[in-house]
Amino acid sequence: MSFLKKGKQKIFVMIFATLLAGIFIGAVVKHSGGKADHLKQEQTTKKQEKLFLKLDKSEATLNDDSEVDIDISTNKGNKIFIYEDGTKKPIFKETADSRTSTLNFYDDGEYKIVVQRKNQKISKKLIIKDNKDEKSDEDSDDNSEEDSDDSEDSEDSEETDDASSTSDTTEDETSEPEPSTPTPAPEPTKPTPSMEQSNALAKAGSYSRHLHLSKSGIYKQLTSPYGEKFSAEAGQYAVDNLVANYNENALESARSYQRHLHLSTGRLFEQLTSEYGSGFTADEANYAISHL
User: Fold this and answer.
1) Left (φ > 0), alpha (ψ -120 to 50) or beta: where does 132 sit?
2) Is there a smaller number of Cβ atoms within 10 Å at the N or the C end of the chain?
3) Which pLDDT does position 243 carry in this prediction?
4) What is residue 192's DSSP assignment?
5) Rounded to whole angstroms, how far apart are CA atoms 214 and 278?
6) Which domain holds residue 70?
7) What is the count of structural domains for the chain?
8) What's the rounded Cα separation, in Å, for the pair 285 and 101?
C-alpha cells in the first residue's frame, strides 16, 4: 500500500511539472512573437522616407533662347504640380519617376512648385526672370554715361547756334511753304473681345508655353468638357489670336517623346501628326524631326 501511495504522488508531481513547462514555453513564444511584430513595425516605419522637395535654384534667368532648366529633387512616386502665381489650377503635373526631375521653363514669372504624397504636401516658390530685363539695366547705365557726354557737347554748341540763328531766320522768311500731305484714313478698330475670349486666349498662351501643344491640341484642350470647357467661339478666338511658334512646340514635343518613349522616326512622325496624338501639321512635324 505504501508503495502505491508513493507512486501516485510521483505521477502527480510529473503532471504538475509538465503543466508549468507548457505555461512557461507559451509565455516565451508569445513574448518573442510580440517582439518580432514590433521589429517589423519599426522596419516599415524606417522604409517610409520623409517627404522632401529641393530646387537646384530658387531664382533663374531665361537664356538667349528664352528657356531655363530647373532640377527638382523629391521622393520617387510623388506627384509634382506647377502653379502660376495667384492661380489655383496647375499648369503642369506629372509623377516623379526618379528622385531628380528636370523641368523646362519658357516664360518669366513667379511659380509655386508643389509635391504631394497621399495627404502630405510641400511647396516652394520659384522666380524666373527675363534676360531682357537684365540687359535693359546694363543699357540704361551705358545710356546715362552717354547722356552726360552729350550734355557737355550741347553747351559747347549753343554759342555757334546763337551766331547762326539770324541768317537762318532770314532764309525761313523767304522760303516757300511745303505742300500739305493728305491725312491717312484711320484704320478700323477691332471689336473688344469678351471676358471669356480674353480668358481663353490667356489660357491658350499658357498651354503653348508650358505644354508645347499644337494649334489643334490647344483648341481641343480649351473646348473639351474634360478640359477648360470654353465655348467653341472663345476657343477659336484664342487660337486665331495666339502668337505661338508651333514649329518649336513640335520640336519640344518630339524631344519629350524621344526621352521617354524612344520612338523611331516613322512612329514619331505619326505621333506628332495624329489627331489622337499631338495634332501638329506635317510641316511642323518634319521641322521637329529634322532639328532633333
Assistant:
1) alpha
2) N
3) 93
4) P
5) 6
6) 53-132
7) 2
8) 26
